[in-house]
Amino acid sequence: MNVLITGGTGFIGSHLARFLHKKGENVTLFDIEPDLGLVDDIRCELGLVKGDLACLSDLLSAVKNNKVEIIYHTGALLSAKAEKYPVAGFRTNLIGTFNVLEAARLFDVEMVIFPSSIAAFGEGVSNPVPNEAYQRPTTMYGVAKVAGEMLGEYYHRRFEVNFRCLRLPSVVGPGRGSGGVSAYSTLMIEKPARGESYQVYVGQNSRMPILYIKDALRAFSGLQKADEAKLKRRVYNIGGISPTAGQIAESVRRHVKGARLEFNPDRGMQAIVDSWPEALDETRAREEWGWVVKYRLDDMVEDFVKEVRSFGG
């Protein structure tokens, strides 16, 4: 299978590339500023296209020249940067998603898989948030994710593009870095595992759903393989787990001796996290294609620390 991953050298994209390559897929990475550090050991076995999501011709060339059959559209300007530069966020995240879907339509790509986000919801929703809950995001990143979901549903209905979407919580894992407001959930584990201190920019009682990267890869694979006849929708909540920042810290201290974590909430960051739901209802994904989370909090922290210490993250 010929696979194109937009944002392919980013956190989720690079882990996905490694996962698919291991399964024998022909993987091409599409990125505007390629940094192959997270796939350095297999970089010679991957295709690479330097291109801009906001430029339709870049995507058309990538899809045509690589005979792409599946697109994993993980490319995006993350939440904090999209808030700081909303015009760039609009171009990359909204126009970019339109361009991916248009390229898929024009070249009869078999499937487009799109990771949406908890940021697609705003305040005033119930917890856990139902799959069909009303969406009223308060950030450019969230607005673009909702638009991406709706564009995908439109292209499925109007042009029969096989669009499938995971509405993900904060994805946690080695190599995530500091991009995005939700990054604290990763850095609280990764920094101590490397012997570094870390100041958490939200309060100990802050709670949001998170998902370990290995579970995220399982979710992508599960949705990609799901029987079309059993799918009753195009977008699925993936709930993961919902610990508080304080509970994450407690787990880290159990698995990293002498972990140095301090809480120093930032009002701006805290406000964004507080606008997100505390839990997502993943019942539809469980019922329609058998999704179930594998890594609970202590399992996740233990495995994450092991990965960092074994491979340097």
The tally of beta strands, per DSSP, is 11
Mean pLDDT, to the nearest integer, reads 95
Number of domains: 2
Helix and strand succession? EHEEHEHHEHEEHEEHEHEHHH
Distance between the termini: 28 Å
Uncertain segments of ≥5 residues (pLDDT<50)?
A: none
| CATH fold field value of the largest domain | Rossmann fold
SS summary, helix count: 11
Largest sheet: 7 strands, parallel
CATH superfamily of the largest domain: NAD(P)-binding Rossmann-like Domain
Strand order of the largest sheet: 3-2-1-4-5-6-10
Strand content: 15-25%
- The helix/strand class is alpha/beta
Indicate the CATH architecture of the largest domain. Answer: 3-Layer(aba) Sandwich
Proportion of helical residues? 40-55%
Outline? globular
Q: What's the CATH class label of the largest domain? A: Alpha Beta
Radius of gyration: 18 Å
Detailed description of the structure:
This protein is of the alpha/beta class and 313 residues long. It has 2 domains: 196 residues, NAD(P)-binding Rossmann-like Domain (Rossmann fold), CATH 3.40.50; 94 residues, UDP-galactose 4-epimerase, domain 1. The chain contains 11 helices and 11 strands. The protein has a 7-stranded parallel beta sheet, sandwiched between helices. Strands 7-9 form a two-stranded parallel sheet. Helix 5 links the parallel strand 5 and strand 6. Helix 8 packs across helix 11. The protein is globular, with a radius of gyration of 18 Å. The chain starts with a strand and ends with a helix.
